[in-house]
Design brief:
This protein is an alpha+beta fold. It contains ten helices and 44 strands.
């Protein structure tokens, strides 16, 4: 299944899925919009892993799925720095190992305990001087007084409330009720049926000459409404407002200085005239955009009109300045000229696209219009944007409008240049989102760090200065061979019974294309179920080969089969060949509870039987104890005692060994005559109690549990509840190497332990006889003022 595949650019090769949270992390609306569009295109590409950005490729392109994603977990530490970093700068990390860390934590616990003890002594008034410090003063008692009082103020009823409480309300005879009044009010204040399109400005004629500005509007109204008029804030002082050549005094002004003139239903002609302020530039805002506009200006230059139509909701007027006045500063009443920020987002995918976002910087509220040059090869696809001479976009922002945008197609080319003129009345930001099938080399100036380094796609972000140019060289790398199938996790669970075994195989995979895939099962396998993403499939193997239909994207497959393999001394399940590399393999092998596990081994990391290593150490210890001159037992007796108790509890063996050594010490102990009687008697009582506890523990925790419970082979590592054992392997070439377990029937252990228990019964009787003789050596009891073992005289009757 190897085939040429597209290769990504040097930056991060695979990105995560685009989510709403990731898109919202970008403060710039342009970058958010572009990434959102890229995510929308990705959704249409198939069913690939939802944690990846799905790129669009040309038909016939074979994509590599890559290796399986490892499941290892490591500690991650973030490292930050501030300021510039040179290429010759180095960084060095110092860390300590687990041994030093262990002693460091132990020292910290001891120091903390000492601190608490020191504070406890201080609390009782004791002063403990510290080395190198003056004597610590006793702790002073601090009294914190917190007073919070509040008196709720009484609430007094109003006169109207008192009147209502005094009795029912009195209604005048013949007055309408509240419902009727509300209905009448609703009818009187109801908006006309044509709202909100009851008036329209069909044409406008603007005449500006010197310090005079005249605007004539042709207005058509379908009802009695008020129509907003053009305004220029306080830079246009109106002195003549007429409707149909008759002066009107019924006018209203809004909070933004806009003028509203009431009109009756029909066609009207409205004339506005007034004097202009001594400003270099004026924005004439049209709250309601006219269908057609005609501008006549003398001494002024106009912008914002294209083919008799307003580009935005304003008309910009700039005064023509004479040569001798060109160096004069602007007057105080002049507004700032239009200045915008242009964000260009290049998306170099299967189809090259360009999204342009124009954001207002100045003026803050007035309408403005600007000309934005297009990139070479750009074709504007947004119908609302006017293009002049196929290389300039005429863009307008209405009053209060912050941003506008358009979408364009971009012709593919091996080179691409983007620049900013030195005298441009704008700032630009260029962002490039490059698909893995393209390799882009940038030349001109260095990029800046993206605003979100954890974004689903790496963004090459450039912030040019006026006069700078960026050159791009775009190439398409040659594809390399690779697989289209990646198996991320595999779980193989085998349960071995007395007559047959059941195996369940589950694996999760990622595939970049659909197709047929065959896995090799044991030839004696009887497949009982096959499920694909939880849906059952009717599939059966042929000569051990099970054909599977793979779908693009991330899916899971579950296969269950049975084999006529009963449990034996060596249990080794049949191997399975996935016919594809796989990662994160979990192999589980379960045996019946009637088996005595002696050894287990398998691929990767799994359980380990520690009993045999402990047994070797014990044999060496038993041999040393047998050679000890004061040992109560011989080497063979120590060995037999340990062999029986080792599969139950080493603690019982240690207790029994301590009792035997203690009784040997008592046998050789010769107390001095001057030894107080209470000390001798206390030793006797302690030895008697020690003997009782040891015998009780040996009989019930050792012999009784050994005959009834299962042996403890001290198996450490991955072990499930019951008799299941798990191995983990990070990767494989395709064949699943199954683990092996060496076991024998449990009745063998029962028989061996019964033989040991029989020996233990006779040995225990012998040890008790010897222990009693050792216990009474030198006397059983010592009477005060007498010798050991003496009794008081008995009076004759």
């Amino acid at each position: 299944m190897a085939a040429p595949a597209a290769v990504g650019p040097p930056p991060p090769p695979v990105a995560d899925a685009i989510t709403a949270e990731d898109i919202g992390a970008f403060p710039d609306g342009g970058v958010r919009e572009s990434l959102q569009r890229a995510a929308g295109n990705a959704k249409s590409a198939g069913y690939l892993n939802s944690m990846q950005v799905v790129q669009r490729y040309a038909a016939g392109t074979v994509l590599q799925a890559g290796p399986g994603i490892p499941a290892w977990q490591y500690n991650s530490y973030d490292y930050y720095w501030s300021g510039p970093v040179e290429s010759a700068d180095t960084v060095r990390f110092i860390y300590v190992g687990p041994v030093v860390l262990f002693f460091w934590r132990l020292l910290g616990v001891i120091a903390l305990a000492a601190l608490f003890a020191w504070l406890a002594l201080l609390s009782y008034g004791k002063r403990i001087p510290l080395p190198g410090f003056p004597k610590a003063a006793s702790a002073a008692t601090l009294l914190l007084l917190c007073m919070a009082t509040g008196v709720p103020s009484p609430s007094w009823a109003s006169a109207g409330d008192e009147a209502n409480e005094s009795g029912p309300a009195v209604t005048a005879p013949g007055a309408p009720d509240d419902d009727l009044l509300a209905e009448l009010k609703k009818r009187l204040t109801a908006a006309p049926e044509c709202s909100p399109h009851c008036a329209e400005i069909s044409a406008a004629r603007v005449t500006v000459e010197g310090d005079r500005l005249e605007v004539v509007l042709q207005v058509s109204a379908l009802a009695n409404v008020a129509v907003p008029m053009p305004h220029a804030s306080d830079r246009w002082q109106l002195d003549d407002v007429s409707v149909d050549a008759r002066g009107t005094v019924a006018m209203a002004r809004d909070h933004d200085a806009s003028l509203w003139v009431p009109m009756t239903a029909g066609a009207h002609s409205v004339r506005l005239a007034g004097r202009l302020a001594s400003a270099e530039s004026i924005q004439l805002a049209f709250p309601q955009r006219p269908r057609v506009i005609d501008v006549s200006a003398r001494g002024w230059t106009t912008s914002g009109v294209n083919e008799g139509r307003l580009v935005s909701g304003s008309l910009e007027l700039a005064r023509e300045r004479a040569a001798e006045r060109s160096g004069d500063p602007l007057e105080a009443g002049a507004e700032f000229p239009a200045f915008v920020r242009v964000d260009r987002v290049f998306n170099l995918d299967l189809d090259w696209t360009l999204d342009t976002y124009v954001t207002r910087i100045a003026p803050q509220r007035a309408a403005l219009s600007v000309e934005i040059p297009l990139v070479r090869g750009e074709s504007v696809l947004t119908s609302s944007v006017k293009v002049r001479n196929n290389d300039t976009a005429l863009v307008g922002l209405g009053a209060g409008e912050v941003m506008t945008q358009w979408h364009s197609g971009l012709a593919r080319a091996e080179t691409l240049e983007v620049s900013v003129p030195a005298d441009a009345a704008r700032s630009e930001v260029w962002s490039f989102i490059v698909s893995p099938q393209w390799n882009v080399e940038f030349e001109g100036f260095a990029p800046v760090l993206p605003e979100n380094v954890n974004a689903p796609s790496w963004v090459f972000r450039f912030m040019p200065r006026p006069g700078e140019k960026l050159s791009l060289k775009v190439t398409r790398p040659q594809g390399v061979k690779g697989t289209t199938l990646a198996i991320d996790s595999v779980s193989l669970n085998t349960t071995v019974g007395t007559r047959s075994s059941t195996t369940a195989l589950q694996f999760s995979y990622r595939s970049t294309q659909g197709g047929r895939h065959i896995i090799k099962l044991p030839e004696t396998a009887r497949v009982t179920s096959v499920t694909f993403d939880g849906r059952p499939q009717q599939l059966r193997p042929e000569k051990g080969e099970l054909p599977l239909s793979l779908a693009p994207g991330s899916h899971s497959m579950d296969i269950t089969w049975e084999e006529s393999n009963d449990v034996g001394m060596l249990t080794h399940p049949s191997a399975v060949d996935l016919k594809s590399p796989a990662s994160n393999l979990t192999l589980n092998l379960s045996l019946p509870g009637s088996r005595w596990i002696l050894a287990a081994w398998g691929p990767g990391i799994g359980p380990a039987v520690l009993y045999w290593g402990e047994l070797v150490v014990f044999i060496a210890v038993a041999w040393l104890l047998g050679r000890w001159s004061k040992s109560p037992l011989r080497f063979t007796e120590w060995l037999l005692l340990g062999l029986g108790l080792s599969t139950q509890s080493w603690a019982v063996f240690c207790l029994t060994a301590a009792w035997l050594i203690a009784m040997r010490w008592r046998e050789n102990w010769k107390p001095a005559d001057e030894l107080p009687s209470w000390r001798f008697n206390a030793v006797q009582v302690l030895l008697a109690g020690f003997t009782f506890i040891t015998i009780l523990t040996l009989v019930f925790s050792g012999i009784r549990n050994g005959l009834l419970a299962s042996p403890d082979m001290h198996i450490a590592g991955s072990r499930d509840y019951g008799n299941g054992y798990t191995w983990f392997q990070d990767q494989t070439a395709g064949v699943l190497e199954t683990p092996s377990i060496f076991s024998v029937p449990m009745w063998i252990y029962r028989a061996l332990f019964f033989a040991w228990a029989s020996w233990m019964a006779f040995a225990l009787v012998r040890w008790l006889r010897w222990a009693f003789n050792a216990w009474k050596t030198g006397g059983l009891w010592k009477v005060a003022g007498g010798k050991s073992g003496e009794r008081a005289p008995v009076a004759n009757g």
